[in-house]
Write a structure and sequence with these properties.
alpha+beta, four-stranded antiparallel β-sheet, two-stranded antiparallel sheet, RDD, membrane, cell membrane, Conserved hypothetical membrane protein, transmembrane
Length: about 325
């Protein structure tokens, strides 16, 4: 499904949004056939009249598109119009209010210390952590499996059976537990200190980690924040729940490390692109997690019922 953007009469960009949402805005009169729209794959912005078939608008609307689009700036005229009609690909050369929210790979967003800031709430942060937790869990399990298979393999060449009381066995146990923790610390530290200021989970949700003044955190602070994160989990998860009630939506580890979690467009020169709603990815992740928890609960209740009835021999 395509993600669309459109520019209103005040030259403000809106989006991304799916086909259905753009159709609904057209039906409500928020956009018309002369409104400029863009999606990934288009070389430049086009009047809505040019894409009525792709969006599945009615034939009657498509028939009236020709007259309405005549007054709109055409793609062929883009070179003769000022930079307001610049396409997303040319945004690096000439800034455009129509430019899609994309940056050149490796390009660091310009830091702006003022403007509106949308804090990332508890549910967005939870969804991001579920994604990160799944990724880290998979890599950790693979890492531990490789270590254990290697240890069993070397043991079979010697005594024939693994012995964790030997110096080698003790070292193996230490590695099995400490390497995943070290990997997690580096994962969070490096990603939070990168130009994106976000882990893969936070990128998917559209949020990032910053200092309380909006600046980027260092790798050291990012690693320290991870250990603060572990401390939050040791407080019966109260440290995490604090993000739902504190004024700036800070969890315990945010307070300890002087950090905030905000929308990815906060503290940039495009604060108007920030999203207050949960977003599609957040809703999908939370819904899947909720379904999984219900299934687990039902299985547990079923096992308890079977055990209580004495029918499980």
């Amino acid at each position: 499904m395509s993600e669309w953007y459109y520019a209103d009469a005040a030259q403000q960009r809106h989006g991304p949004m799916p086909d259905e949402q753009l159709q609904q805005r057209f039906q409500r009169g928020e956009v018309d056939l002369t409104t400029l729209v863009w999606r990934d794959g288009l070389s430049q912005w086009h009047p809505l009249a040019d894409v009525v078939d792709e969006l599945g608008l009615t034939q009657a609307q498509a028939a009236s598109a020709a007259d309405a689009a005549a007054a709109a700036p055409r793609a062929a005229d883009a070179q003769a119009v000022p930079s307001a009609w610049t396409t997303p690909d040319a945004a690096a050369a000439t800034h455009s209010p129509y430019a899609a929210p994309a940056a050149t790979l490796g390009e660091e967003p310009r830091f702006v210390g003022d403007g509106e800031v949308v804090q990332a709430g508890f549910w967005k942060r939870t969804a991001a952590y579920l994604i990160d937790g799944m990724l880290i869990g998979i890599v950790s399990q693979v890492m531990q499996l490789v270590l254990m298979l290697g240890f069993f393999g070397f043991s079979s060449l010697g005594s024939g059976s693994p012995d964790f009381s030997t110096p080698g066995g003790i070292v193996m146990l230490v590695l099995v537990y400490l390497l995943p923790m070290a990997m997690s610390a580096l994962y969070f530290g490096l990603f939070h200190a990168s130009t994106k200021q976000a882990t893969l989970g936070k990128m998917a949700i559209g949020i990032k980690v910053v200092r309380t003044d909006g600046s980027r955190i260092s790798v050291g602070r990012g690693v320290g924040r991870y250990f603060g994160f572990l401390l939050s989990s040791l407080t019966l998860f109260i440290g995490f729940l604090m993000a739902a009630f504190t004024e700036r939506k800070q969890a315990l580890h945010d307070m300890l490390c002087d950090t905030l979690v905000v929308d990815k467009w906060a503290y940039t020169d495009h604060p108007q692109w920030q999203q207050r709603k949960l977003g599609t990815v957040t809703v999908v992740i939370l819904s899947l997690f909720g379904v999984l928890m219900v299934v687990v609960l039902l299985v547990v209740l079923l096992l308890i019922g079977v055990a209580a009835s004495g029918s499980w021999h």
